[in-house]
Amino acid sequence: MLEAFVFATVLLGFFGIILKKNLIMKILSMDVMSTGVIAYYVLVSSRSGLFTPIAYKEPVAYADPVPQAVILTAIVIGFSIQALMLVGVMKLSREHPTLEANEIEKSYTP
């Protein structure tokens, strides 16, 4: 059931990128899709019955910290890409009064 919600989140973001014409909505859709992908990785890497990797007196099975580090890195990279894209949209909005992708494409065609 949880996998279906994660897959729906990824698809919702994907179709938002394709179908939305506003650049801000495209960036938000990309963020939704990125959230779905990260949630999928968390879902795959989560296992119950494992302990955090902290030193215990007796040997116990602990969770692998590598997927958590990869997810944190993906979140940081996604945030920086989103910020960079928003700066690009801000620069475009100074030159054009609209944020619709079709209108901006029309103004750049010879």
Question: Mind explaining what this structure looks like?
Answer:
The chain is built from four helices and no strands. The chain has 110 residues and is mainly alpha-helical. The protein is elongated and about 70 Å long. The mean pLDDT is 87.
Summarize the structure.
With 110 residues, the chain is an all-alpha fold. 72% of the residues lie in helices and 0% in strands.
Give a topology summary.
Layout: H1 2-19, H2 23-45, H3 66-95, H4 101-108
Keywords:
mainly alpha; elongated; 0% strand; 72% helix; 4 helices; 110 residues
| Series of secondary-structure elements, N-terminal to C-terminal | HHHH
Arithmetic mean pLDDT: 87
Helix/sheet category: mainly alpha
What percent of the residues sit in helical stretches (DSSP H or I)? over 70%
Total DSSP helices? 4
Strand share of the residues? under 5%
* C-alpha geometry: elongated
Main beta sheet strand tally, sense and closure: none
What distance lies between the first and last C-alpha atoms, to the nearest angstrom? 50 Å
Q: What's the Cα radius of gyration?
A: 20 Å
Number of strands: 0
